[in-house]
Amino acid sequence: xxxxxxxxxxxxxxxxxxxxxxxxxxxxxxxxxxxxxxxxxxxxxxxxxxxxxxxxxxxxxxxxxxxxxxxxxxxxxxxxxxxxxxxxxxxxxxxxxxxxxxxx
Length: 104
Ligand SMILES: [Zn+2]
Hints:
binds zinc ion, 2 domains, three-stranded antiparallel beta sheet
């Protein structure tokens, strides 16, 4: 049986509905935990920061943040994780931009 490991990412956001707007200076990572424990921690953090609209906590699978390598150019970059969360594939900022500008 594979036990999934989950982490909780918290911080303030420009847009609290979008994980990619998280301010990296405020980012804190907790875990890894089991999925239910991670959700419990995330809910606790959200409750604790209920007065701060821009503060949010997210539950993310741990393996996502362990692999920051872009599938297009093999470069390691923070934006790979953000794009994986947003678009569902591992791509860095610059490859994503060139794809957007010149769709294949
Ligand atoms: Zn790339």
